[in-house]
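Researcher: Next entry in the queue.
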Amino acid sequence: MSERLKSELRPEGPHASPESPCPTDLRLMRRALEEATKAAERGEVPVGAVVARGDEIIAAAHNERETTKDPTAHAELLALRRAAEKLESWRLTGCTLYATLEPCPMCAGALHAARIGRLVYATPDPKAGAAGTLYDIPADRRLNHTFPTERGVLGAESTALLRAFFEQRRRSR
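Model: Structure for this entry, 173 residues:
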């Protein structure tokens, strides 16, 4: 990836990414990538998500839309539901959601509703991204809750997984 493109993926302000992600962010994003790989193996779009509080993983999930025939079975929503159930609270303040792909408007809205403390995602979604690409729900000050967002953590790995999945899908048609 060119340095110019890398710099475009690292904007200033509420979506700034650290030059070197912290070890915790790397470990948890790797776990989200494991979930994305599971999704791909099941014929699902390879997106994975992890909800963590500090170093502790509260919940993990991957896309299950094809499996369940449920349009809302996105990795982020499933991880939020599981975390809320485990913590016995819909408020996920103090938690971070790690996602391999930038959340869509539905998922970004759910993060807002859950009062998530922070969002970290690997790669932007130019067609549906609602955390800085097409929309910016996490930073929208008109809402009653905003949260910091970091992007680009293990972005190359996530992009490669998505590209391989869709290339294989096109070949099989």
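Model: Helices lie at 3-8, 23-41, 65-68, 75-87, 105-113, 155-172.
Researcher: Noted, moving on.
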